[in-house]
Amino acid sequence: MIKVEVIFKSLSALTIAGGSKVGAVDVPFNELGIPPSSVKGALRTAVSRYTPSNFTACSEVNPDMMRSKHASGPCDVCKLFGYPGSGESCFYVEVEGVQLEKYLLTRVAIEDKTQKAKEGSLFTQEVLRPGFQFKATLNYTCEDPRLFKLLLYSLLSLRLWRFGRNGMVDLKVTNPEQICKSTSCDNELKTVLSSLSNFLWGD
Ligand SMILES: [Zn+2]
Question: pLDDT tens across 15-38, in order?
Answer without folding.
Answer: 775 544 445 566 666 655 788 888
